[in-house]
Amino acid sequence: MVLAREEGRLEAAEYAALVRSSGLDRPVDDLPRMAAMLAGADLVVTARDDAGQLLGAARSVTDFAWCCYLSDLVVTKERQRGGLGRLLLAETKRAVGPGCMVLLLSTPSAMGYYPRLGMERVPNGFLIRRDG
């Protein structure tokens, strides 16, 4: 398994295929929007097998100093529950550094997952939902 930073290099179609295979709800049929999501990410950590197959990714928006919003943590269904999400999260935290917090918004079905990775549940948040 190879972990790498791929911001600016990961293709939207490959990323959409990974997200689709993970079960995460994202606009995978809207490739221009997926491309914009990747283009706006400051940090994209990927996990690939030895043949180069994309197995997982962590896509974040960050200033590398104070805050990091981990917007997607995705692992292909076949590799879920094998520690890959934990590795991607650890590499994201390593990349942003010790002075930077990592925040994410969870899907309802994954609310029990993140505490097992050592993430703290926080009640002090606010949200303006997207319109589309």
TrEMBL record:
Regions annotated as coiled coil: none
N-acetyltransferase domain: residues covered: 2-132
Pfam families from the UniProt entry: Acetyltransf_7
Source species, domain of life: Bacteria
Database matches in PROSITE patterns: GNAT
SUPFAM superfamilies, alphabetized: Acyl-CoA N-acyltransferases (Nat)
PANTHER family in the cross-refs: FAMILY N-ACETYLTRANSFERASE, PUTATIVE (AFU_ORTHOLOGUE AFUA_6G03350)-RELATED
Name the record gives this protein: GNAT family N-acetyltransferase
Phylogenetic lineage: Bacteria, Pseudomonadati, Pseudomonadota, Alphaproteobacteria, Acetobacterales
